[in-house]
Each structure stands twice: as structure tokens, then as C-alpha cells.
Amino acid sequence: MHTPLRITFIVILLSCLTPFISSGQTDTTLNLTQWGGSILTGLNSPGKTNPPSSHNPFGLELTYSRVGTSRKAWEACNCFAKTGVYVNYYQLGNPTVLGQTAGAGIFFEPLIGYRHRLYGSVRASLGISYLSRYFNAETNPTNQFVSLPVSNMIAARAALHYRLTPNWQSVLSVQFGHISNGGTKQPNNGLNLPTIGIGTIYSPQPDGLPVNFIRNAPNSFNHWFARATAFGSIRIISRFDPYASKDLFKEKEQWVTKMWGADLVGGYRLTRQHAVSVGIQYIDDRYLKTLMLSRPNFQYRQASILAGYEFWYGRFTVQAHYAWNFVVPAFNGYIRHYHQFQRYSLLYQLSNGFTFGVGVRADRETTKGFHVLTGWVL
């Protein structure tokens, strides 16, 4: 999955989950609870390995979810949808190179044609996975997919549901999953897990939803806004980083580097939920500085112009910005650095304007690691 698509998928999923979770906290009588279980089989091997995989992946998944039936839950996406948590386990088909993975996460699943006995759904999920086998130069050199024992997993799923009784359903699903550490450490080609699954769902209450609501007219709001944030992250340089010089590892096996920066953004809200924004950003990137220790005059700081789109929902904001560097790290034999990059962020704003969240930067198809943000809406 391409990096910009993967990051946009993550931040939109998190923003969609928020109103459903909050509605459940304020009125638990308006939620249908469901328990589910599925058996999953891989459609192909996750990738080429040595020795080759003996069989396709096989997995199990358990879920707990709620379907909000209140007006507030419906207005979040103009639909009824499940929000919930999952735990899963996969045998990846190659115990020597890939091993097993166990994980947990959250999901958001709008329902399609839910008033019929046979209906559909689409699901987006985000979680973490623990991997028993990952890259090691001496003991597992052919695993170029993951290099950390804990990585993130995102997945998209389409499913057909058939109501057997008011409390029981059968499910047939097709899912595409991807495991990656987001570029925190190399190598990181990622593991792709396309699967087909069969399962069942149990609802303690009889399964029934009301007819669709009519969306309420929005109240007035301020169109213009400004926001100042500071951010920071950590990246690990190993001898397998494609831009790392061998001279870096004469005394150390790896380097832990820091990046920090700040930005100022202003924008205009076209509607209550949709906005455009522009701004400037400064980055002090010690990852680049460490890569260039043998070149003390190397320029590693960056300054950029930002422009892009923001999605607002309540106290949450999803940002997708394109950036142009007007102060650019020098090109050299070790690093290929671009004049443009993309930045994606998920922010939460308190009532006093204080803002915090997470973000990620990508240079074309290469993820440059996650970072945390904090700031203020001016």
C-alpha cells in the first residue's frame, strides 16, 4: 500500500471512530453490542523468503463492537456503523523467517442495506502487532519485511452478513492487511496479508436498527482560524539504512536520532467540517545530521511552505498538507532528498485551544517516521 494512501487511511479512521465512541459514553442504552469470531486464510504468501514459505498464512480473530442507534451516532457518517476492538493471531506460513504475529486494535465498520436479512459492510481497522520473527543480520537476514518486534497493522475489509436468527449472524469476508513500522527502522518493506474469512456474530439484544434520521441543520461557526504547533520524533539508523555510511558503525551498531520542529498554519473553514489551510514549517533533523557526520558543513535543517486540506469533526482535526522546501538539505552521494513532501496529522483540541496529536511525514513513497505534536489554536 502506498505511503500517502496508508497514512490518510489511518487518520480518517481515527477521526471516524471518535463520535461513535463518545456517543456510547453518554448513552449506553442506545447501543447494540456484538461479539464475533472468524477463521482467516491467506490468499497468497506475504513475500519471497529463503527458505520459501511452506503454506499461506492462517489466522483467527475475535471482536467486540457496538452499533450506535442514536441520532448523534448516525450523523457521524450518515449511516449506522459498528465501532469496536479486535484481537488476532496469524501463523504466517514460514516459521523460520516470518514466524507468528499476535495483535489488537480498533475498527470502524459502516453497515450497507442493514434492514435486510442479507446485508453488507465495509471495515477499516488500525492496531499493533507483535511479531515473533523479524530482521536480524545474523539469524534472519532474508526477512526484509519488518525490523522491529512491534509494528502497526492497518486493514480494509468487505463482508456479507446473513441473519440466521434475531441474535445470530454468519459472516463471509475478504480483507487486505498491511504490517509496517512506518519507516522508524530499516529494512521495512512491510508484510501484506490478503485473507478470506468465515465467522459468526452474536448479539445479546435482538438485532434491529431504526430508520435513517434526517441530519440537523448546523449552527454558526468561525470560518477563519490559526494554529501554532511544535513536534518531535525519534528514528533509528542501522547499517541496513539505504542512506547510511559504513563509517557510522565502527563503534556503534545503531544510532537513535531526534527530530524536532515547529509550524504556524492559518486557514478558512469552507463548511463546519471542511477547511483549507496554508503555513510555514521549520525542521531540525538530526537523522540527516547523523548520516552526514563525516561532512560537518552539511545542511540538515529545513524550512517549508505548507498548503492543504483539513477535516474537522468536533474537537478532532485531520490534516493533509503538501510542502515545498525553500531551505533544502544538500544532495549528496548518500541521501536522495526531495524538494517536496507530504505531512499528515491527527489533532485533538481542548476547550481552551490547547492542541495535541500525532503525525507522519512522507517523501513520495517513503515514510519518514511518526511524530507527536502539541500547540495552540490562536
TrEMBL record:
Q: Which UniProt keywords apply?
A: Signal
Gene3D superfamilies from the entry? 2.40.160.20
Q: Where is the signal peptide?
A: 1-24
Q: What is this protein called?
A: Deacylase
Which species expresses this protein natively?
A: Arsenicibacter rosenii
